[in-house]
Amino acid sequence: MMLVAARNLNTAYAFFERNWNLTRRYFGWEVVWFVYSVVNALTILFIAAATERITGQTVDTRFFVLYLLIGTTMWSYLSAVFDVVAETIAWERWEGTIEYTLMAPVPRFLHLLGTCCYAVTYAVARAVLIFAVVAMMFQVDLHMANPLTALVVIAVGSVSVIGLAMVAAVLPLLFTERGAQMTFVIHSSLLLISGVYAPVDVLPTWLQVLSPLSPMTYVLHAVRAGLLEGAPPGAVVGDLAILAVMGVALVPAGLLVFRAAERYARRTGRLKRSG
Amino acid sequence: MIATFQLAQSSNVGQVSLLGQSALALHDVTKSFDGRPMLRLPWRARPAERRVVAIDNVSLNVRRGEIFGVLGANGSGKSTLVRLVSTLLLPDGGKLEVFGLDVVREELRVKQMINRVSVDAAFFKKLSPMENLLYAGRLYGLGARESHERGLDILDRLGISKKVALAPMEHMSRGMQQKVAVSRALLTSPVLLLLDEPTTGLDPRSKKDVQRMVLSLRDEHDATVVLTTHDMDEADRMCDRVAVLDRGRIIALDTPDHLKQAGGSMEDVFMRLTHEEEEAA
């Protein structure tokens, strides 16, 4: 039993280690991407900083800056998790290794487990760095924050984001030429409907209907409650419960959808390096 | 002789008796593709059905320890055959068995026994050969230390120094990359090795190195090899038996010597066989 567990761990670790090696080898790209994310976050936060001057109205600038900083940081974290998992196949197709990886004796569950563990580790490191750099520039006031609430919400919420990303990962499997771009549509739709930079109730009614379908909506709502209002984990139990249910449903669903898509791809000859 | 082969590092395959079994058996296997896109925009006309029969009712038996050649023109179905055995494609009909295991129903156990080298060396090119081998080793159940030691040894035997083994692969020549692909296959100790045009585009020296490794794999590691190639001389020298595919069907299957009995080289035999089929069609 222990031996089987150790072997499975070794197999799942193959994907973690490979992705880590790729991150190291593409370090220049990581730096560029990090700078882009920091500049992007700063641009958004300067809008908050300048709101009083732009509108001529009195605004709680510190609160507004923190509100948007949570949005940009959480979006950076969640989108990094989503991207790494959703690009599981796209990256393999790009490198030309898809056939080799998918003919290896690896249960798909272990393949995705290794990929997801790396996605979360990578995304946490990246989001913490972005938060640190941006927070330094704006002297963010966190005296009210309850970091425990944020950590619990992120831990529970990540599971459902992973499940959603698994579903998105089948697009490059099914659509050999444009599948990767299709995941961007899901990605940007989540940005729009999840309340990343503004409360979801400012959206048009027809878009508000979609907001409850995104796990990111609950993650952002609960993290903001913890960091802006100091809410303890017990105060966001409603969001946590929904996220837990979504996680329990989305991960097996993602795995099932992935397996079904892989079978379809094997039947129709889509498991190849190019379109 | 090896009575039983302990499938290396497999978590769930147990032991499979290899004695007295054919390494690979195909029974009436068929595979076809339709060229229709998965989604069609409603204002676009429905494309005409373009069904291509890639493998047409193929049956064959590859004996254990054999180097079995598959010859055929471009588009004859060679690569489809290899991809079916590799579990990358599902057959439309018929049955494929690797050492008695059904390729579709016992996919994971079959995957543990096989490996493949294709015409394009598929690697993470930014990673070093060693990092690629480490990844492959873990996928096949090897630990980091074992992969590292065995990997360096195999690479060294193929003339790849430790320094080169630790540098990114993107600057390596195609011949060198193909040698790393062969090393990767050897690392996982496959009992059935599928080689899909492994020497295409290689210079004569690299080609000889790869061919030497394939022969040693069969002779020293008791592996069975299925080799697709366009190089008739290679097929003649290396293969115990050869099947010639044309439009997805086997039109000849015999030893190179028997095929050449009617006179001429393997190339002459190939030209004659495929020309006859063309005329008959």
Summarize this structure as a short list of keywords or feature phrases:
heterodimer, A: 275 residues, mainly alpha, B: 281 residues, alpha/beta, Rossmann fold, six-stranded mixed sheet, four-stranded antiparallel sheet, 10 helices, 36% helix, 26% strand
Protein described:
The complex is a heterodimer of chains A (275) and B (281). Chain A is mainly alpha-helical and 275 residues long. In chain A, 79% of the residues lie in helices and 0% in strands. Chain A is built from eleven helices and no strands. The mean pLDDT of chain A is 90. By secondary structure, chain B is α/β, with parallel strands linked by helices. Chain B has one domain: P-loop containing nucleotide triphosphate hydrolases (Rossmann fold, 3-Layer(aba) Sandwich), CATH 3.40.50. Chain B has ten helices and twelve strands. In chain B, strands 8-9-10-5-11-12 form a six-stranded mixed beta sheet, sandwiched between helices. Chain B has a four-stranded antiparallel beta sheet with strand order 4-3-6-7, with helices on one face. The N and C termini of chain B lie far apart (46 Å). Classes of the chains: A mainly alpha (275), B alpha/beta (281). Chain A binds chain B through residues 3-4, 7-8, 10-11, 13-14, 17-18, 21-22, 25-26, 95-107, 174-175, 263, 266-269, 271-273, and chain B through 9-13, 33, 38-39, 83, 86-90, 108-109, 111-112, 114, 116, 118, 120, 122-127, 131, 134-136, 138-141, 143, 168.
